[in-house]
Write a structure and sequence with these properties.
Belongs to the ABC transporter superfamily. Drug exporter-1 (DrugE1) (TC 3.A.1.105) family. This protein is of the alpha/beta class. It has two domains: 223 residues, P-loop containing nucleotide triphosphate hydrolases (Rossmann fold), CATH 3.40.50.300; 64 residues, 2-Layer Sandwich (Alpha-Beta Plaits), CATH 3.30.70.980. Helices cover 37% and strands 30% of the residues. It binds adenosine-5'-triphosphate.
Length: 316
């Protein structure tokens, strides 16, 4: 559905401080299969939105090529545009106009043969029929997000771009939206979504790429990626993380200190734990807490970039 190679975008801004350039995307390859949910996971400022906007024909790449739904992104942008739906991070739902009218307008803009019917269908599909005649400002965050997706889908595109679809939603609305995105996949729509939520990427995506500073640092299924940094993570909280790390180094594949936390990467946590605790006790290192977990996508991010996704987000 999408084959992209070497996508690049640099932004130049001029202000009183002078000319500033930001290399937002620095050579991204992407391969999205038909009917899959593909995720672009990364911290704030990683280049997710810029990548999606290039693929959605909204900004022109400085370099690179892409074929989307069988059409060349640069040579046939109008054909590409007809085959995709795009839902921006902000959502694009008007406050003063009701949902039905907004969806109907999108259907007309796209030249849908029977806009009334297409609107009614998409309203029904997203559980919006009851709310269809209320102005945008009276809808909840989750309802607005569903209207935005309905606007993006009313012309029945085979490919949908969702830029951070669940940011700001409460857990119940996020779960609801995940179900609806999964239903899209079942009906054959390919979905490319960006997110900075690890659990979202893990729960929803068939495959994903992790981006950082405009580059792809890892790609695969969530299970493959986690297998790459295989094994378990033992997280120990202590006042002496450096000393604890030195003590357990020989028993671990890798250790990482993060404030008062020591992460110990081992092949088999259950078996490694007793030996680890014994060694720490012998050295007189006191612990305030112990946790044993399977590796997560954050551990993949940490292994590839040396930072956790949370830290990377905070630094951006
Ligand atoms: N129009 C623009 N002009 C100048 N700089 C830009 C522009 N758009 C994006 N950037 C910069 O490019 C970098 C990547 O931005 P982008 O929006 O693609 O990141 P993102 O991964 O989507 O982040 P977020 O999760 O915060 O939306 C950032 O440093 C951003 O400030």
């Amino acid at each position: 559905m999408i084959q992209a190679h070497g996508l690049r975008k640099t932004f130049t801004t001029r202000s009183r401080k002078g000319v500033q350039t930001v290399e937002a995307v620095r050579g991204v390859d992407l391969d999205v299969e038909k009917g899959e949910i593909f995720g672009v996971l990364g911290p704030n400022g990683a280049g997710k939105t810029t990548t999606i906007r290039m693929l959605a024909t909204l900004i022109t790449p400085d370099a690179g090529t892409a074929v989307i739904a069988g059409h060349d992104l640069l040579k046939e942008p109008a054909a590409v545009r007809r085959r995709l739906g795009y839902v921006s991070q902000a959502g694009g739902v008007e406050d003063t106009v009701n949902a039905r009218a907004q969806i109907m307008m999108a259907a007309r803009i796209h030249g849908v043969a029977d806009p009334g019917r297409a609107t009614a269908e998409v309203l029904d599909r997203f559980g919006l029929t009851e709310l269809a005649d209320r102005p945008g400002r009276t809808l909840s965050g989750g309802q607005k997000r569903r209207v935005a997706i309905a606007i993006g889908l009313v012309h029945g595109p085979p490919l949908l771009f969702l830029d951070e679809p669940t940011t700001g939603l409460d857990p119940q609305n996020r779960a609801n939206l995940w179900d609806r995105i999964r239903q899209l996949r079942e009906s054959g729509t390919s979905v490319l979504l960006s997110t900075h939520y690890l659990d979202e990427a893990d729960a929803l995506c068939d495959r994903l790429m992790i981006v950082d500073h405009g580059l792809v640092v890892a790609e695969g299924t969530p299970a493959d990626l986690k297998r790459e940094v295989s094994g378990d993570v033992i997280t120990l909280r202590t006042d002496q993380p450096g000393r604890a790390a030195d003590t357990v180094k020989a028993l671990a594949r890798e250790t990482r200190v993060d404030d008062d936390l020591l992460r110990v990467y081992v092949d088999d946590g259950e078996h490694a734990l007793p030996g680890l605790l014994r060694a720490l006790e012998e050295q007189g290192v006191a612990l305030t807490s112990i946790a044993l977990d399977r590796s997560t996508l954050d551990d993949v991010f940490l292994a590839k970039t040396g930072r956790t996704l949370r830290d990377a987000g905070a630094a951006a």
